[in-house]
C-alpha cells in the first residue's frame, strides 16, 4: 500500500510538473522569441491530457481548433462557432470583474482569460481580424459583422481581466489604425470604440489623428450618438499627457520640456486636424445643447440616477445602453411589427427608466470636455468664433434649469483638472459645464454672450451713470448670439452659487467660472453688475461666517473677491459695511494669513487699489472710504506691506515654482514696483536686509529673490500671453515690469535699487544655476502677521 501511494504521489507530481513545464516553455518563448510561443504549437494529445488536470476549460484545445479553421479561404462559419465558445468562457469573468469593481487584473480571479492570453489567444484574434487587410489575394472571404463583434468583445474582455493585454495591443500601431477603419461600420462601432478607448488610455504616445485613413469622411459618417462616443476617444488624443509627479509640474521642468518639444505637440496637431473637418464643431454644439425628453417624475429619475452611477462609470454598461437606444430608435422609426425582441431583452427589465437621461448626460460630459480642451488650445479664437456662431452658450442657458442644475446634488470630493474622477454622471456633467464656462470667459470678449439683451442694457446704463465709456467688447457683442429668456447664463450661475451648501466643492468651480468673467482688463461696469446681485456679501459670508475649511474653495473665493474689488471704491465701501466689527476683520485677516499662496491675489488687489485711491485725493468719496475702510487702513501701514512682502518671497524658490504659486512672485513684484514708482524701493530693500539679520539668516532671502527674478526674466520674456495677463490685471505697463526687474538685478553695487547692494560679500550667491537646489524656506516664513 505504501509503495502504491508513493507511485501515485510521484505520478501526480510528474503531471503537475509537466503542466508547469508547458506554461514555462510558453512564457520563456514569449520572452525570448524562440521556441514555443503559443499553446497551439503543442501536440493535440498533450493538450488534451493536461487540460482537465490543469483546469484550462478546454481553452488551449479551442484555440488549436480556431487556428486550424481560420486560415484564408476557410469556412468562417466554423471559425465563428469556435469564437462563440471562447467568448462564453471569457465573458462571465469580465462581467464579474466589472461589477465587483476590481482595480487590478489578477490571474487568480480571471483564470480563463489568463489561460486564453497565455496560449496565444489575443495574438490569434488580432490575426483573424486583420487577415483580410494583410492578404495579397483578391478573393478573401468577407467576415460577418457578428464575427467581428465577437472577436472585439473577446479582446476587450481580455483587456479588462488580464494585465498587460491592453498595453501589448496599444504597442501595435497597425492594429490601432485598423480598429479605426472598423468604426465606419455602424454594427461594429460600439465594440470597436470601447476597445479603442481602453487602448488609448494606456498608450505612452498620443496617436496622430491625421494617420487615421479618411479621418474627415469617417467622422462625417457618424450619427450624433456615435460622434458623442467618439469624443471619449478624442479626449485622449487632444489632451497633453499628464506630466506625472509633482516636480514635473514645476515651471522649471515645463520650460525645459518646451525647449525640447519646440514644434507643436501631437495633441496640438490633432486639435488642428479636428477643426479642419467640416461641420465638426457645429455638430458638437448641437450635441451639447440638445434637449432630453423625460418620461417620468423628476425626483424619481434623479434618485435612480444616483443609485446607478457606479454602474455607469463602466464603459460596458454605457455601451449596452447606447446599443439599446439605437435599437429603440430604429424600431420606432421603422414601426417594425417585431416589437417583442426589445421588450424581452434583459436590459429592458434590468435598467431603470432614467437611463436615457443619464445616457444623454454622459454624452454631454464628453462633448463639453472636447470643446473645453479646444478652447484652451492655440486655435482658441477660431473655436470661439465657431461656438458663438453655433449658439453654444444660449443653448446651454436653455438647458440650465431643466438639466444642468435642476437640483443640488449630494456632496462629493473636489477633483482638479488632471485628476481621475469617480463622480456620478450628474456631478461630472456639472463640473465639466463649469470648466467650459471658465475657459469660454477667460480673457475673451465673447464673455458677454453669457448675458441676455436686458443685462447688456444694464451694463450700458451702469457705464452711462458713472460717466465712463462702454467697454469695446460690450459694444461689439452681436446681440443675436446672446442668451435668451429672463436670465443670462452668468446670472443663473450666481443664483445657484448663492444657494450652494457650505461644504459643497461646487463652490470652487462656480467661483472660478464667475472670476473668469471678470479677469482681464478691469471693467467697472462688470463689477457693479455683480455687486448689485449681492456677490460680494456672499463671498465674505463664505470666508468669514460659513465655517468653510476647504483651502481650494477659499482660494477660489479670494481670487474672485480680488477681481470683484480691484480699483472699485464702491466694492471697498460694501466690504467695510459687511466687515463692520474688529472681530470680523480679524477673522478675515486670519483666513488670508492661513495660506498666503491661496490669498496672495487678493493681497495684490488691495495693494494696487490702495495705490490708485491714494492718487485720487480730490475725490471726496474716495477720501471718505480711505479713512473708514479697515482693510485699506491696514494695508496703508508700511510694516504690514513689508510683512506680506517678506513672506511672499520666502515661501517660494525657483525649484518649487508652479503655475499655482508663481503668483506669489508677481505679487511681491507689484509691491516693489509701486515702491519704486514712489521712490521708496531702497527703503523696502533695506527693510528686507534688516529682516534677514533679525531672523539670523543673512543673505538667504535676497539671494532667493535674486534667483526668482532671474527665472522671471527667463520665463516671462518669452511668453506673450502671460505678459499680457500681467499688464491687464495690474494696469501696469509690461515695460515697467521688465524695467523694474532689470533694475533689481543690476550688478552695479552703487545702485540703491539693486538687490546685490544689500547682500554682504560673505553671503552673496547670485550666480547659482537654476537647476541647483535652493536653500529651503525659513521655518518662520509661514507665521502670521
Could you tell me the CATH topology label of the domain at 29-99 and 107-204: Leucine-rich Repeat Variant
**Shape-level CATH architecture of the domain at 29-99 and 107-204:** Alpha Horseshoe
Gyration radius, in Å: 32 Å
The dominant shape is elongated
Question: What are the low-pLDDT stretches, counting only 5+ consecutive residues below 50?
Answer: 5-20, 243-248, 294-316, 335-351, 416-422, 773-785
CATH class of the domain at 29-99 and 107-204: Mainly Alpha
The mean pLDDT is: 81
Class computed from helices, strands and strand pairing:
mainly alpha
Task: Specify the helix fraction band.
Answer: 55-70%
End-to-end gap: 90 Å
- The tally of beta strands, per DSSP, is 0
What's the tally of helices? 41
The proportion of strand residues reads under 5%
Characterize the largest beta sheet: strand count, sense, and whether it forms a barrel.
none
Pfam families: DUF3689 (PF12463)
Protein name: Transient receptor potential cation channel, subfamily C, member 4 associated protein a
Organism: Astyanax mexicanus
GO molecular function: phosphatase binding
